[in-house]
Automatic annotation (TrEMBL):
Keyword Acetylation attached: no
Domain HTH tetR-type: 9-69
Record keyword DNA-binding present: yes
Keyword terms, alphabetized: DNA-binding, Transcription, Transcription regulation
GO molecular function annotations of the record: DNA-binding transcription factor activity; transcription cis-regulatory region binding
Protein name: TetR family transcription regulator
DNA-binding positions: 32-51
Organism for this UniProt entry: Kutzneria albida DSM 43870
Gene3D superfamilies: Homeodomain-like, Tetracycline Repressor, domain 2
Domain of life: Bacteria
Length: 205
């Protein structure tokens, strides 16, 4: 169900933040509309007026979260140097998941649950994010910075999966690590693949 036009951006963000706090504790299925409304400081009727149902709200909030993530990742498309663009992609993802750690948990739990109530929605949203990652990875391939046997589509999905799982591991199991430490670990992995084609044309460090 699509959100109704009466919803404001401020209300959407308040509900998104509230839902994530609760979902991070108990999972999407275990949270009620009453609880989300109370956490967001809005009337229960506001949720139903704007979204029609709890399922409609969760669906819309998943889309909202992915839209926020996509905005962070698209900043990498503006970076001219292909190696720096890849690093900007990593930074954008880690910054987002540091701000919304429960969203990483929600994505992992719902994307890979079989079957999941919001699996269909998340599959489409996952494709949107991977498409952004693919554009940046394709630029590295175009300058000969990827080994020829590396498939851009597979590499892009793998990079997104890596960022998602690393962010979740960081927030849940290693919160004492700084973002810079986590970033450097991911960048080393990325460089290990994207800089191992010395014979490719136009290789950029």
């Amino acid at each position: 169900m699509k959100p109704r036009p009466g919803r404001t951006t401020a209300t959407k963000q308040k509900l998104f933040d509230a839902a994530l706090r609760l979902v991070g504790e108990r999972g999407a299925a275990g949270v009620t509309v009453d609880e989300i409304a109370a956490e967001a400081g809005v009337a229960k009727g506001t949720v139903y007026y704007n979204f029609g149902s709890k399922d409609g709200m969760v669906d819309a909030l998943l889309r909202h979260g992915v839209q926020l993530l996509a905005t962070r990742l698209r900043a990498a498309e503006e970076v001219e140097d292909t190696a720096a663009a890849l690093e900007a992609l990593v930074d954008g993802a880690l910054d987002f998941f540091a701000e919304y750690p429960a969203f990483a948990q929600l994505l992992v739990s719902e994307m890979w649950r079989t079957p999941g109530q919001w699996h269909g929605t998340l599959s489409l949203l996952r494709d949107d994010i991977v498409a952004i990652v693919k554009q940046v990875v394709q630029r590295r391939a175009d300058v000969g910075a990827l080994p020829p046997e590396v498939q851009v589509g597979t590499a892009s999905a793998a990079l997104f999966g890596t960022l998602l799982v690393v962010a979740l591991d960081w927030q849940v199991f290693q919160p004492q690590r700084s973002k810079q430490e986590v970033r450097e670990s991911v960048i080393l992995l990325v460089r290990g693949v994207s800089e191992r084609n010395p014979n490719g044309p136009g290789h950029q460090p």
